[in-house]
Amino acid sequence: METIIKRISTRNYLDEELDQHEQELVKNIIDLENSAIFGHTFEVKLVDQKFMKKNKVKRIGTYGVITGKPNYMFAGIENDNQSLIDYGFVLEKMVLDLTEKDLQTCWLGGSFSRRTLFKLYKLSNELFIPAVVAIGKKSEKKSFVQNLMGSNYHNRMRFEEIYYDNKPYAPLNALTAGEYFEPLEAMRMAPSAMNGQPWRAVLEGDKLHFYCETTNMIKMKYVDMGIGFSHFDRLCTQKNIEGRWQLLDIPSTSKLQYIISYVK
Ligand SMILES: Cc1cc2nc3c(=O)[nH]c(=O)nc-3n(C[C@H](O)[C@H](O)[C@H](O)COP(=O)(O)O)c2cc1C
Predict the structure, then answer these.
(1) What is the DSSP secondary-structure string of 132-192?
(2) What CATH number belongs to 159-263?
(3) 2-148 matches 159-263 in fold
(4) Do the interacting molecules here have an ipTM over 0.85?
(5) Is residue 66 within 6 Å of ligand 1 at its C-beta?
């Protein structure tokens, strides 16, 4: 849980490159074999400063949003809902591994140049880059955007607003959530595009059914869902909760799209 609490979106990075040891840490984390809920694996690419210099690329992150010289990671993927969820899942696992090693990160869904990455990596037009993650060491200098976001630290909806108990249908709390309390808290603390927090869950016995809140729906919410699942899954593993992800026959409603369940 410490890592979950420590992670915060960082938009201001040092101008210096990471040292050799840090570069290796990043590379090892990104190169680890990855797997996700719906079975996709991704070839995650690391865009480091050396590579950018060699190719005369000044920046990937938008001017004014990201300052300093971070590295970036991303993959080109197919643009369907389950791939987007898995993309969030896999990259957020890396984000948390990087956080554990005292490196800072920021997901960027809008504030980066897709065109530059497509050109640099000669990606096929059939692929899509949903978002990238900036990686580096934070600088104390604050950008305009960081100043705006500064007071937002872990500003989230309340536990009872997003998680429910099926019987009787009522808000879930620390007591009724039982062993799922911490994994659900970890999900609640996850980053999401524009802090949209689309994660919803209903507890039924020892099964948890997860939904995506679809008011003002944008595709990026599927990436957010995967990011939340990554936090949940990490805490379940840490707490030795032996469950698995399973698609059940559960209906969606007009505002809640059923995504997947966690069952024992
Ligand atoms: C998929 C995704 C896309 C994001 N895109 C941007 C972005 O384009 N620009 C930006 O400044 N922050 C972006 N963020 C960061 C969110 O604004 C941030 O996660 C949220 O406000 C919660 O703050 P925290 O991460 O510090 O806890 C993005 C986050 C996610 C998960």
Answers:
(1) EEEEE-B-S---HHHHHHGGGTT----HHHHEEETTTTEE--HHHHGGGHHHHHHHHTS--
(2) 3.40.109.10
(3) yes
(4) yes
(5) no
What topology does CATH give the domain 2-148?
A: NADH Oxidase (3.40.109)
pLDDT single digits (tens) 52-93: 999 999 889 888 889 999 999 999 999 999 999 999 999 999
CB 72 within 8 A of CB 133: yes
On whether the CB atoms of residues 88 and 227 are closer than 8 A, the answer is yes
- The rounded Å distance from CA 105 to ligand 1 centre is 10
Give me the residue spans of the domains in the chain: 2-148, 159-263
Instruction: Identify which of 194, 199, 225 to mutate to test ligand 1's pocket (most ligand atoms within 8 A of the CB).
Output: 194
Tell me the C-alpha distance between 152 and 160, whole Å: 20
Nearest-angstrom CA–CA distance, 143 and 99? 21
